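call fold target=B30.2/SPRY domain-containing protein
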Amino acid sequence: MQDIVHNPYNRLYDSARAKYTLPDQELSSESLIDVSKHLGNLKYHVWDNMKDICPYYPVILNPHTTPPDFSVSDDLTSVTSCLHRQDKSSPFPLNRSCMVLGSVGYGIGTHTWQIEVGNSRHWILGVCFRSEGKPITQHLSPENGFWGLRRDGCMYSFLSTQTRFSLKTNPEVVQVRLEDDFDVMGRWQRKVSFSDARINSHFAKITGVPSGKELFPFVMPEDRSAPLRVVPIPAKITLAGEQVERNLSFQERYKGLFEICCWVAIALLVIIAFKTDRQDK
């Protein structure tokens, strides 16, 4: 009896459902998302977009070389002096009591980094050999393995000399460039150049830096509470089969040696011409 009562109701429900249920719509290819576009190389694209959020710093300061009176930021990219400047009576500042080294040394090749000095009027930037085991009161000079540029107020000077010079515009961001070079005898050496990074203007150069040993960047803030900061650079992506960095040509790589050979050839031609002229007489 129960089945007889419910069967008419079930048939009526099924009939109404079939009548008013919309048929399944077929999705066209235009309404589908481009899966390959959005999911292909997904990890790579996420990493590529992260470059703007996570900057790359070419120089990381070594906290183990930080004097106790200096303050280094948590990300190891800036340092501030907590003391007043040294006594002006000393023409060369002292070692290690007032300097912070980079964590990585540079060998052959070209290496560039930028330091934001801001409005600081007293600082020293440069490169040096590793100073472990050296006297703490050693002067900063090329004889002791230090090459750099010092600003003292409105005047600038190299660590190798007391000769001072001034600039029309004091840079707020200094670019330091360490690269290979050749001396007049064709021997391999290195040079350090300094430029205003904001206007791309070169204003100082140190030549004759020895090769064969790693050189470490160093910074010296001499203004109290005026930090020196390493400037981040855009990260570059190098894919297999692509050449992002420009290779130096033969002339650029051996420019110094090429110039020496040219001068030698000219001198030989002059000597030959002189001897030929004497024989003719």
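return ok
The helical segments are 2-20, 35-39, 42-50, 250-253, 255-280. Residues 1-5, 84-94, 242-247 have pLDDT under 50 and may be disordered.
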